Amino acid sequence: MKLHSLLHDIDVDSSSHDIDITITGISNNSQKVEPGDLFVAISGYASDGHKYIDSAIRAGAKAIIGEQDLHTLSVPYFRVANSRIALAHLAKTFYNSKSSQKTIIGITGTNGKTTTSFMIKHILEECGRSCALFGSVHNVINGTIISGTTKNTTIDALELQKQLAKSEDEFVIIEVTSHALTQHRVGGIIFDICLFTNLSQDHLDYHKTMDSYFSAKETLFDQLSSNGIAIINTYDSWGAALETKLKKKHTVFTMGESTTSFTKEDIQYNEKMSVSLQDQNQKHQLTLNFLGEHNIFNAVMAFLTAKAIHITPGDALHALETFSGVPGRFEVFEHPTLGAKFIIDYAHTEDAFRHCLQTAKAMGALRIIHIFGFRGGRDVGKRQVMVDVSKSFSDLIILTLDDLNNVSFEEMNQTLYSFDLCGQGLVIPDRVEAICYAWNATQKGDWVFITGKGHERYAQSYKAHTFSDKETVENLMNTSVPF
């Protein structure tokens, strides 16, 4: 592609350079530059791409885009106000992803993005529609899981546009994080449907305040098409505020008291969960084959999305009843001799804790044992609240390690011991040992929650050398001598 075509939608001064040169690729990583590439220098959080411009040129980059004022390069250089925004538009133009020919669904919120996205995908596929998915567990296009693309929940703009160009799917679902929005990873994409699941304290190490965190989430809806549909959980106060802003210019479907509604008291627990759902003038029965009070909320959001794309209520509800769940999201395992339940869940906020633990209470758990920890270098302000919520529901708390994230073991260990568990718990830093302790201490009728990691692999090694919470539990289930 000619450079002048790539720069068409980018605000740059190109009068002093040859822009008739051919660009054969785009890169924002100097180690991956190939001859003929356009290199985009990003001012990152760990490193500054401008430091690697010379390396990119030596590797064959034919032009450079960046934010700094540079004049002595041997190839054309174009200064922009924001390299991340420029990269998103360049990638869209270069890959010509034809995203306008697909129905693009974006989901944001603190909790529930992954489960809701899997539910929507399941409904669509049960109804014979093809669907791509970009999210935290894996990315899927054309029915195939794309490996090596899930370092971040929302992949960067360059990789996203590259994958969208390959997708022949009718629908595309994208989990959109607040980090992705502030870093313009979905820049240039026009969404047909945008969902807001909820907001609770998280990532304040990055956003600093809840207002700033909400503002980041809110920007997804700036990319909603003029005739697009917003789907909002107005049981959440932040969602209610968002609905007020959006309903003046967009069609808005809401899950709340005045529209598609239910109450927690309506939820029926057996081996399944069911709830009576009031949708305007119609009443429906929603049944799920897996547990977790929060999954009722996720299912209703998926139901509303199906409604927005004109799938009949009956088809949507039938599909939801056959949905089997998501890896690392309220995955239930039974102790082979005692029948106690072990639940692995990604929950890492006080709101997610509450929904998980309330489910166990509602289903008559004899005792609740809760294993969790905190990620090093992340939002420290939510830690005490998480402990308090767990204390209000749990009979035994076991504080353990999560990802260290470059924080020393000694510092995180000291942090774990700093919390007053009021005689309800203990600290076992080794995560696998913590799970083994609970396994050996459990009784019939107990529910043991292992939260924080979900489907993710361990970021550091433990004495028993298992690599995930699921592998640890499965090993315990399959041997009489645990490790």
Please, could you describe this protein's structure?
With 483 residues, this protein is α/β, with parallel strands linked by helices. It has 3 domains: 3-95, Udp-n-acetylmuramoylalanyl-d-glutamate--2,6- Diaminopimelate Ligase, Chain: A, domain 1 (3-Layer(aba) Sandwich); 99-321, UDP-N-acetylmuramoyl-L-alanine:D-glutamate ligase (3-Layer(aba) Sandwich); 331-478, Protein-Tyrosine Phosphatase, Chain A, CATH 3.90.190.20. It has 16 helices and 21 strands. The chain has helices at 3-6, 53-58, 83-95, 113-126, 157-166, 178-182, 204-207, 210-218, 237-246, 293-308, 313-321, 350-362, 383-393, 409-417, 431-441, 469-478; strands at residues 25-27, 37-40, 63-66, 77-79, 103-108, 131-134, 139-141, 144-146, 171-175, 191-196, 224-233, 251-255, 268-269, 273-279, 282-288, 331-334, 341-345, 368-372, 396-399, 425-427, 447-451. The strands form 5 sheets. Strands 6-9-5-10-11-12 form a 6-stranded parallel beta sheet, sandwiched between helices. Strands 16-17-21-18-19-20 form a 6-stranded mixed beta sheet, sandwiched between helices. A 4-stranded parallel beta sheet has the order 1-2-3-4. The N and C termini lie far apart (57 Å). The model has no long low-confidence stretch (mean pLDDT 91).
Keywords:
16 helices, cell wall biogenesis/degradation, 483 residues, Protein-Tyrosine Phosphatase, Chain A, Udp-n-acetylmuramoylalanyl-d-glutamate--2,6- Diaminopimelate Ligase, Chain: A, domain 1, UDP-N-acetylmuramoyl-L-alanyl-D-glutamate--2, 6-diaminopimelate ligase, six-stranded mixed beta sheet, UDP-N-acetylmuramoylalanyl-D-glutamate-2,6-diaminopimelate ligase activity
